Amino acid sequence: MSQVEFVNITIDGTTVQVPAGEMVIESARRVGIEIPHFCYHPRLTMEAGANCRMCLVEVSMPRKNPDGTLALARMPKPQTSCSLPAAEGMVIETETPMIVEARKGMLEFLLINHPLDCPICDRGGECPLQNNTMHYGAATTRFVEEKRHPPKAYPLSKYVIFDRERCIHCARCTRFASDISGDAQLDFLKRGADMEVSSFRDTEFTSLYSGNVIEVCPVGALLSRPYRFTARPWDLSTQKSICTECSNGCNIKLDHRAGKLLRVNARLNEEVNEEWTCDQGKFGMDYASHEKRLRRPLIRDGAVFREVSWDEALTHVATALSEAGPAAAFLGGARSSNEDLFVLRRLFQEVLGSQNMDHRLGPAYPSAADVRAALGSQSPTPIAAYERMTTIIVFGCDLAVELPILYLRVRKAAVRRGAKVIECQPSSYRERPHANKVTDFAHSSIWYEPGQETAIAEALAHVMTGGRDPGASDGASDAAASLPNAVAEANVEFGSAIPRLDDGPIAIIIGRDVWSRSLSVPATLKAAADKMGTPCVINTYACSVNEQGARELGILPDGSVQASAPGLNADQILHGLKDGTVKALWVSGVDIASQFHDPELVTQSLEQAPFVVVTALDLNRTATMADVVLPLASVAEYDGTYTSMERRVQRFHQAFDAGVDVREEWRIAANVGMRLGVDMPYASWRDIFGAIATSERAFAECTPDNLGDGGRLLADRNNEDSR
Amino acid sequence: MAEKLVLFEHRHLPGVETAAVYETVGGYEGLRRALQMTPAGVIEEIKVSGLQGRGGAGFPTWIKWNGMLGNPPGDRYVVCNADEGEPGTFKDRELMLRFPHMIVEGMAIAGHATGSATGYIYIRGEFTEPADAIRRAVDEAYERGYLGEGIRTDGSRFDIHVHLGAGSYECGEETALMSSLMGERGQPRAKPPHAPLPVVAGLWRRPTLINNVETYACAPHILRRGGAWYASMGTERAKGTKIFSVSGHVARPGNYEIELGTPLLELLDMAGGVTGGALKAIIPGGSSVPILPAAKCTDVRLDYDGCRAAGTMLGSGGCMVFNETTDIVKLMWVTARFYAHESCGKCTPCREGTRWMAKIMDRIVQGKGRPEDPDLLVSVCNNIDGRSYCPLGDAAAWPIRASVLQYRDEYEHWVRHKTSPVGEHSVPKVA
Ligand code: SF4
Ligand code: SF4
Ligand code: FES
Q: Does the ipTM surpass 0.85?
């Protein structure tokens, strides 16, 4: 590891040690000086930056006199502190008369063409331009001509609207598009004062990360369509939460007012999402305030549902479950909190004596033992660790869709850290209409047709274990020449030669479509990985928000150490409902009628099932077929924890009260348990989390108080005894 | 003093744009000599010559060339800036049309001196004829072995690619030129102290030497006749000759090659003197440099120090001469509109300030000026000067500010009387 070199620089009279090359604007923060700025953003590259000229400072450098003594020489021009690397002996002045004047001038320039929209602008109240003008600007303008009037309110995409009049041309959005999401769908057109941000002649802005530009824009030029005109920032309350749209566990802020979720913004977590969100997360979480939210428990009355009290509903559920006893079953749970799952599991195992539970909805149901045998007990590669990988293999995974924030990290690893990315994808992915494809930064792309997965995995394994073309020099192999014949005959198209794979740590990401069908691909690659000299982790990441939690907590037919025999898996449970061996079903928070791999089977089973209770936010397809429907609290309405795909346990906090009669699933399960005579005396998520930490080895180091704002990775499985 | 012809020595020789004729007057001897020398030897010769960059800044050429040598091995590039866009400047155009081989030869010498195998010549988009001349010369140079591997015996090679710009003044700024050459927007890139110089990290972050057409054209002569010979011309602190493009109210507008240090008024004489009235002012170095009223022209010597002492700059050598019918306000109005049109838009002060200045000038020449406008112009210039991302902002501010300071009475006349102080038939015309 290279040693960080430190230099001494003096800022407004205070001398401070900073890493050499740190931007002076950051060094100033260390001594409590905030230099006003617009275009600077620490995560965006400098090349198109340093353009707003707001952060000017005066700079002096030590220079040797002829007699060897040092004297300070002031640079003739002020310099932009956002792009100025700190150097030994540098002296910075941030408040000289010239700088004060320069800032005033810069604000005047920015404002001459800026509409005075503040009273109707979403940004008003949290606008850097407004704030800096108040602090550093002049009170009046000397500009008397007509301002520029480009079109206002131009819709760029279904989420983002662009008010071109307000743009100050800071290039943050365009740099986000080129540096971070990499789709480069926003760029400047024209030049000079006519320069404008554009999605290339106003084509649709199809980036899957478009919402981030709203947050990086320092003015109200890029706006959220759903949020527009709905609130003023000072009327909003904010709560820390976790995005529930996928398993990445992005840290977010819920902005709400009067029991309504109005806006989702990213919350900084360097280990997870840095400060980004995907559009799914930013704009998809409207269910909390959805008008179709269930308000009361429902009980089926012939062909219709009747609204009932919680007491009546729970009595009904308790009765049906106790009659079913060990013939009760439980499906879903990948969207429930750790606490929900823990209490539900207790209800089924301890109260009903049933191990019939499965959170998996895909076609493959290997036993826990099979999985361990094939994949060992490696912990998945943490998101931030991708930046340290030499090689990243993406297998059958449209990463930006399946694990959007991991996509950004993998892209960063490739583009900024030089990781080699190899993708093996179904050829249909090439036609996908979105703008964020691994192909854009992949070293090699290998396209296959459905059914060729295993052959491709074998070929890859062959290369991994050194079976290269012996003629190839320097490790780079002509992959086609080195492949087993079967694959060569399958006429697989190799984008380019596969590079050597054994020159550093490898992470392999296998898509849900592949691992949820069969273990053969992960198992093949794992076997090859074990023969390699370099660390290589095979990741079959969970996809739903708490699917990893369900794995950790053993929401599986053979997930229990206590149970003498394994219970039924999802397919068996559904068949059991048809043939009467399963007598009651609890569906937890998931619309299995839409999401199960065999929806037909779900419909048939639910029609014939003696008893089905569904917990849900709204009347989804599964719920319409239930006997009892119980309205759930949304993530914005209660407290708890999720375990993300990288095994990070993170807190979400209640933001508001929904104003409807909904409950947490753990409270429902505990209540049912109580009615069946088993006391589960939990008053809050903390009590349950404490119990989880006591009973679950993986959670042993966690307490309700040590999760912090950024969450905590579960103990490495390699250090655990196998369960 | 008269012209001192070095680059232009064979200006009137028919066919000098062809390799065959160029060779009869010593063409490519400089390259042959250079190839027998070490890179360090070639750079030493340039150092002895005292050659300074002819694009405007006057930076010692050898230091740039030498800067290329310190880099670790790998690709490096030689770029010729032929994006001659400075108003009043047309010397590179003639060099390319008449002496394309001199430029090719100069670049090939630089390639050898800096260990570069690839050269790019970035030609202003409107210069289709000069570009054709360069292309023909490049083809001929390949045929005769001056490019490619050809006459080189050490296995090295030097190739030249010809690239036409798309019509942007800003792309004459060397970092913007690099952006454009790499297919990006023609906007400038960071320089010291924010980022390394192009000679360390230029095109594709590889070491890149960028010089002006005229600078490269000097190299063959220096290599053929020796640095000391070249240094014997000019002044102590500005060696050699320089081409000035003289335009405006003169009898014989055109390019004149003179020793550095020649008095400005002598150059004026060479061009046949002022026509159509008495001399009013001269802009000696292209539209970006401050204007010199006639009274201040008398003692000015045309070298870097001489111009600076007079409060202006040598710049690109675009010497524009104005007689007494010239309306300075309208002249600056044209200038302001030029910079507003050419600002790349990257940085706030230039993007907004140049357009604002143009608007102020618009209203003044439309008879709608306000008493506070001259001061406002100076203030806007002050808010741009030294604070823009690249020198274009400064270049837009200096001439306007200088004109207000020197010719305030003319601005006030416009504002008060809503007409030109020099009358109906003043030049330039208001469109
Ligand atoms: S739209 Fe916003 S982020 Fe983009 S350039 Fe304009 S001001 Fe900057
Ligand atoms: S000064 Fe600024 S806007 Fe003007 S050309 Fe340079 S970078 Fe572009
Ligand atoms: S913040 Fe430094 S120039 Fe914009």
A: yes
Could you tell me the CATH number of the domain that includes residue B225? 3.40.50.11540
| Residue ranges of chain A with per-residue pLDDT less than 70 | 1-2, 287-289, 467-497, 561-563, 718-723
Backbone angles phi, psi at A599, to 5 degrees: -60, -30
Check pLDDT > 70 for residue B162: yes
Tell me the angle at which helices B348-365 and B391-406 cross, rounded to the nearest 10 degrees.
Answer: 30
Per-residue pLDDT of A524-560, as tens digits, reads 999 999 998 889 999 999 999 999 999 999 999 998 7
C-alpha span between A271 and A519 (Å, rounded): 29
Residues with CB under 6 A from ligand 3: A 37-40, 50-55, 80, 82
Q: Are residues A603 and A699 in the same domain?
A: yes
pTM: 0.93
On whether residue B425 sits in a domain, the answer given is no
Q: What's the whole-number average pLDDT of chain A?
A: 91
- Structural domain contains residue B236: no
**B393 and B256 within one domain:** no
E strand segments, B51-193: 77-82, 118-123, 159-164
Mutate to test the interface with A, among B184, B308, B347 (most CBs of A within 10 A): B347
Distance B78 CA to ligand 2 centre (A): 24
Contact residues, A window 143-172, toward B, CB-based 8 Å cutoff: 143-145, 168-169, 171
Same domain, B182 and B213: yes
At residue A722, the pLDDT reads: 39
Domain boundary among B266, B300, B323: B323
Range of the domain at A520: 381-539
Domain span at residue B335 reads: 328-417
Q: How many CB atoms lie within 10 A of CB A471?
A: 9
CB contact under 8 A, B383 and A193: no
List, for residues A593-618, the tens digit of each pLDDT value: 999 999 999 999 999 999 999 999 99
The distance of A47 to chain B (nearest Cα, Å) reads 6
pLDDT tens digits, residue range B381-427? 999 999 999 999 999 999 999 999 999 999 999 999 999 999 888 88
Q: Read off the DSSP letter of residue A350.
A: I
